[in-house]
Each structure stands twice: as structure tokens, then as C-alpha cells.
Amino acid sequence: MIELLYAVFLTGLCAVLLAATIPMATGSREKADLYNKATSLAQKQIEAVRGLGYANLTPAQLVSYGLIDSTATVAANTYSFTNSDSAANDAPANVLPSGTGTVRIEQVELDLRRVTITVNFSLRGENRSIQVATLVANL
């Protein structure tokens, strides 16, 4: 009889432990999914901008290719792409909670520009961001 009670206790303890880990696993999966989406958006955007080449890294060209929202800056040499590419449902505003994105273009040297893509989003009320950068040369 004691063995049976012990077995029932152990089975119940295992069930409680398993049930306690499910919310944590769900939260971790949600966090990983949002970071994966943000990273994918940043990589897609940086590849598209880099693919235009050095000569086309101007606000007017980026708007004409649908890579930024407008030629208006949100900070020094920084342009928003929060709602661009909405036809493909790949805009940060469509994919991420409170999602925004920026493209920053800096002249590093005479024939060299640095492009920095930042994707911001909200995760459980906290602001998070992913940033990737590349250099584009005038070849």
C-alpha cells in the first residue's frame, strides 16, 4: 500500500513539474519567434539596400524602390521603413508588435558608405531591437 501511495505521489509530482514548465516554454518560443522575424526583416532589408549599389544609396532611389517610407529623415541620415514592402506583408508594422524599422546611411570614406538597419519591436511591454550593418563601396 505504501508503494502505491509513493508511486501516485511521484506521478503527481512529475505532472505538476511538467505543467509548470509549459508557460515558460511558450514564452521562450514567442520570444524566439519575434527575434527570428526581426532578424529576417533586417537581413532582407540590408540585402535589398546593398543590392542597389553605391550610386543608388540616396533617399530618392530608396523610396522609388520601395525600401523606405519617404525621403523625410527620422534622425540624421536615418530613414523609416516601418510601412514599406506592405504588399509582401514584410513591413515591420505588419509582422511585429509595435514594429518599426530604420535605415541609416553614413559616408565613411570617399567611396564607402555604411548602411545600418535597425528593427524595433515590443515584447511583453519591453522595447527590443535588432541591428545589422554592412559597408557598400563604389566599385
Number of helices: 3
Terminal Cα span: 83 Å
> Ranges with pLDDT <50 over ≥5 residues?
none
Helix/strand-derived class? alpha+beta
The proportion of residues forming helix, as a percent range, comes to 40-55%
Gyration radius (Cα, Å) is 23 Å
Proportion of residues in β-strands: 25-35%
Number of beta-strand segments = 5
3D architecture notes:
This protein is an alpha+beta fold. The protein has one domain. 44% of the residues lie in helices and 29% in strands. The chain has a 5-stranded antiparallel sheet. The longest helix is centred in the first third of the chain and has 51 residues.
What is the structure about, briefly put?
It is built from 3 helices and 5 strands. It has about 140 residues and is α+β, with helices and mostly antiparallel strands.
Question: Secondary structure elements and their pairing?
Answer:
Layout: H1 2-52, H2 59-64, E1 73-75, E2 78-80, H3 92-95, E3 100-109, E4 112-123, E5 126-137
Antiparallel strand pairs: 1-2, 2-3, 3-4, 4-5
Structural key phrases:
139 residues; alpha+beta; 3 helices; 5 strands
